[in-house]
Amino acid sequence: MTSVAVKPFVVVLSHVPLVTDVIVDALEEIADVRAFTVQNGDTVGLLRSLRPDAIVVDGPEAAESAARYARAADVPLVFVALRERKLRVLEGDGWRDEVGRPSIESLRNALAQAIYRRTPA
Amino acid sequence: MRRTRVLLLDPLPLFRAGVRGHLVEESDFEVVEAGSLEEVRRLEPPDIALVDSAFVHAVEALGDACVVVWSFAPESHEVLAAIQAGADGYLHKEISSHGLVRALRALPQGEAPLSRDLAAAMIEALHGQEAHSQVQARLAVLSAREREVLELVALGARNASIAESLSISEFTVKRHVQNILGKLGVASRSAAGAIYRSALDESAVTA
């Protein structure tokens, strides 16, 4: 009998429609991805109901809300900080900036590292 | 049918990829990308350039292309600076794909893409520039010494302290202050100080 690897479930909270698709496409190889447009909604409530394995956001407001959930639930969170042109990974109480500007590859790598670093062997 | 060549000039590869993904779905657009001005120089001239606000200084170098500058959370002075630099319009980067396509198709017909809030922000910035010019004109009638005195008045210094700082008599300071109030057309030291501070604030904004 062979076991089937289950892809992690990643929620993308996007407020920049022009990049939503490219973020989803970048992650689909490594994750089961669902994207949601966020404006001023209840981000934490949405995440509580979805219970993702990891979260990706592209806006500062959603990043702060998602960080509250991610810390409480111990879930990886990657922030594509488009204004600052940085890729940020939540670590403890703060954000760690990845080297270089956000690209499809750097986003995929950052998320994969954030997920698998936590997954028990 | 000749397709409209759209240049994406943006330092962020992820953003360029996102925009390209939407525009290539439209049969009337051909998309080229650049992350720097050096890359732009190696490309065929575009019909339309979508330029990140970090490259606003390059607007003139884009020749005959219709130039639209865009950014996240644009500030009023950025919008005004882009238009003054020769941009044909300004957009929010949070625009929808449909909105972007519509704006780009309207450009050749002379429709400048500028949302209502950005137009209002630009008018506000224009008014700010006008007010700044008026303040500068009022301050221009002061002598160099009067400006020095006014600077100290704006900091809240008393006549005795100003006299000591500038090594002049208190009587002379009093005379300078009266001249300053007369030239600026204000009745109090605090009003004169406020004019001086507003000139400084405006300089910081427009710098």
Description:
- The complex is a heterodimer of chains A (121) and B (207).
- Chain A has four helices and six strands; from the N terminus they run βαβαβαβββα.
- With 121 residues, chain A is of the alpha/beta class.
- Chain B is an alpha/beta fold and 207 residues long.
- Chain B has nine helices and five strands.
- A five-stranded parallel beta sheet of chain B has the order 2-1-3-4-5, with helices on both faces.
- Chain B is elongated.
- The two termini of chain B are 46 Å apart.
- The A-B interface holds A 15-23, 25, 80, 82-83, 85, 101-104, 107 and B 11-15, 17-19, 21-22, 72-73, 93-97, 100.
Write the layout of secondary structure elements.
The complex is a heterodimer of chains A (121) and B (207).
Chain A: E1 9-14, H1 17-27, E2 32-37, H2 43-50, E3 54-57, H3 60-73, E4 77-81, E5 86-91, E6 94-97, H4 104-116
Parallel strand pairs in A: 1-2, 1-3, 3-4
Antiparallel strand pairs in A: 4-5, 5-6
Helix pairs in contact in A: 1-4, 2-3
Chain B: E1 4-9, H1 13-23, E2 29-34, H2 37-41, E3 48-52, E4 66-71, H3 76-84, E5 89-92, H4 97-106, H5 116-140, H6 144-154, H7 159-166, H8 170-184, H9 189-206
Parallel strand pairs in B: 1-2, 1-3, 3-4, 4-5
